[in-house]
Amino acid sequence: MASRSRKQKTFHFVNADPSSETKSQTRSQIRSHVGKWVWHQMRKDDDDDDVDGRRDDVHHGGKEREEDSRRRVHCHSRSTRTASTGTFPRDKGPGTSTAVFSVITMQNQTVPANEEDTDLGTPVSDTLGQGSQTQSSIGSNVYSQGTFDTQDNAQSLYLIGNSWDPFKTYPTNLPSSLVAKCNEYSTSVLWPSLTPGPSKIASPGTQGWLPLSMTDPTLFTALLFGSLSHRRTRDRKRGMIDGPQREQENRELIMCETTTIQLLNEAIADPSRALSDGVILAVLAMASNHHDEDALNSVAKSPFTPPLKSLQWLDVYGTLALNPVHARGLCQLVDMRGGLEKLTLPGLAETISYSIILNASKSLSRPGYPFIPFATDSQPHTLQARLGFSSEDIKQSFGTFCKMGFTYELAETFQAMHVYQGIVELYCDGALPAPDLTTLIDQRNLVQHTLMSLPPGSELDTTSTKNSLVYEVCRLAAITYNLGVLFPLPISTVPFQSLTQQLKEALQESKKRFDWGVEPLPHLLLWVLAVGGIASTNLPERPWFVAVLSRVTAQRGIQSWRALKTYLKGILWLESACDVAGELLWDEMDSLHESFL
């Protein structure tokens, strides 16, 4: 049979930012190219269906190559894990690399008759192709340590026919199906909630991180790892992963982790890249996605029933553990850059700040870095400015406890918790007509950052033992309340065991030094005991809190749950989160009281 002659291939070079004179011609060339590519793909699929025998041979050969590849990945994983345990080098140099990436495509839809009135395609939106016309931006100078501006040299990243980057221009050799799955999940699910913006498509993750990763292989694979880790944890918590799926995801996680560690070692060794925003974001992804199987397998439930448990994925990232090696490296890189304020990639400093707050809460330590809000307004990063109260408000409420041991900072923090709790109540009741989740997240994180930054009573500059003990008891109770209600960590990782033990010891020490019966201390004591009693559910400290609270309520003549709740609401008490556990605590107190009769 005579061989068929092939038409010679023609390459067309088009300007990614064409002038008006060439705009129509460029659109036609691109649409023609995409149309031919789609047609060839469809034709290829049809041809594949007609050659079953050859396809079987290819399939078996592919399986052998895949198994060989897996063996190499696992061997490489062992070697790179050993190499990655060292500290990050402190080489520092100016960034010099520059890259710009541009993909212009179109959706599976009919080309309009009037090309001048249409865009080149449908961009990636918060629902991956459901109508939004907002474009992502890609900046140049991606390895530079200077300002990252997504508006400079901005290009557009598009989805082609429900397929991510069919021309495989992404900077990795990982399977295209894996890349597509991870990028779709990150842009439509993960980043819009983790890095809030004016809209899902306008989140810093979608606008800044994805475009930057297209020019940075290290960041690209690190974000794939972060996407896989988040999705796996989220599905595990919902009981949605079966055996085969879990094995497949484990293999994918190992593949991405191994590749990222290798690329990170190379990037860190390059002085021009080691301190870039892309490398720091890659290290953050590796540091904050360590799996804790005990936490994932836990079936325990919190005694509190807090709202907004998933706000900014607190339920997922609260379950994931911190990788200590990568965490130390992250801190070193941030310090060598000059602090969080020197990071210019949108959403990077804010997300690191959130991660630090989260891990300080889990470890009961003070944050080592300042709070960075997601909101881009000019408001000061203070409780009063962000939550809208004044010094006079403090004076009229929690400031009255300053004469009994509160510092002004503790009183201000209690006031901020009270105001934020009111905002949460309005949000849950649907009373906020247009809730701004970015503001809500910033308020919550700032309150928690401030609370965890308060020094323990032993560090106070006071000669009054009574004051330091009252302060410490209320500080511990406030942390316990916040971690159960307003910044609700998963029960598998929330440090209630340590908190209730410390709270019990502080209360026992205070009883030796002074009498809690002096007004207004009884109000505080009732609240502290109730919070400690709920948090100690199923813990060894529970009977002690029940017994002491039962005795104090009897001394105060409190004979019903409703009467006790009146005192609790005078301090901090979110009914939707606390009432069920509070009533159970009261019932246990009643049973204890009857046993003595």
UniProtKB/TrEMBL annotation:
Organism lineage: Eukaryota, Fungi, Dikarya, Ascomycota, Pezizomycotina
Protein known as: Transcription factor domain-containing protein
Originating organism: Polytolypa hystricis (strain UAMH7299)
Extent of the signal sequence: none
PANTHER family, sorted: TRANSCRIPTION FACTOR (ACR-2), PUTATIVE-RELATED-RELATED, TRANSCRIPTION FACTOR DOMAIN-CONTAINING PROTEIN
Pfam families associated with the record: Fungal_trans_2
Biased composition (Basic and acidic residues): 52-70
Bias (Basic residues): 1-10
Compositional bias segments (type: Polar residues): 17-31
Annotated stretches, region: Disordered: 1-97
